[in-house]
Design a protein that fits this description.
Layout (H helix, E strand, L loop, with lengths): L1 E2 L3 H10 L2 E7 L4 H17 L4 E6 L5 H6 L7 E6 L2 E7 L4 H17 L1
Parallel strand pairs: 1-3, 2-3
Antiparallel strand pairs: 2-4, 4-5
Length: 111
């Protein structure tokens, strides 16, 4: 997972990648640290063209998280073609993320 710490880096990632999974988390957030490797595995095994990024809201990316309206952790956002497609906050499962990714990812990779 790529680490993102600034709005410029985030904007570049969203422009350069047709499909992006963003995990907003924190070093002291146990749930964030537990789902991070599971989301990475999901992307690598089932959605190989999905770019993944981690934004640490408790460390260097605090201003970015505030600018994006992230005030609770964890948050997962799915972006397709620079547009936010889905967002999961606080209580969700890896299956929820998988289900949200399946159809748009399939459509994206058919081209």
């Amino acid at each position: 997972m790529q680490k993102v710490c600034s709005e410029e880096t985030l904007a570049d990632l969203l422009k350069s990648s047709p499909a992006v999974l963003l995990l907003y988390g924190g070093a002291t957030c146990g749930v964030c640290q537990a789902i991070k490797p599971r989301l990475e595995a999901l992307a690598n095994e089932e959605f190989p063209k999905l770019a993944t990024a981690y934004i640490d809201c408790q460390e260097t990316a605090g201003p970015l998280c505030a600018a994006q309206g992230i005030f609770s952790l964890p948050v997962v956002q799915l972006w397709f073609d620079g547009q936010r497609f889905a967002e999961f906050a606080r209580v969700f499962s890896i299956g929820d993320v998988r289900s949200a990714l399946e159809r748009p990812y399939e459509l994206m990779t058919q081209n």
